[in-house]
């Protein structure tokens, strides 16, 4: 069982619709704003995206 992939996945936000919806619900915003924050941050790292949203 590989654990590396699991750790990487927890720390990033992918382009998949369910990931965007989850992050939007978590931060109290819309999936579109999460997608825009990802582009503005230039990264898909969860911490960087959450900083751009706030």
UniProtKB/TrEMBL annotation:
<feature type="compositionally biased region" description="Basic and acidic residues">
    <location>
        <begin position="1"/>
        <end position="39"/>
    </location>
</feature>
<protein>
    <submittedName>
        <fullName>DUF3606 domain-containing protein</fullName>
    </submittedName>
</protein>
<feature type="region of interest" description="Disordered">
    <location>
        <begin position="1"/>
        <end position="54"/>
    </location>
</feature>
<dbReference type="InterPro" id="IPR022037">
    <property type="entry name" value="DUF3606"/>
</dbReference>
<dbReference type="Pfam" id="PF12244">
    <property type="entry name" value="DUF3606"/>
</dbReference>
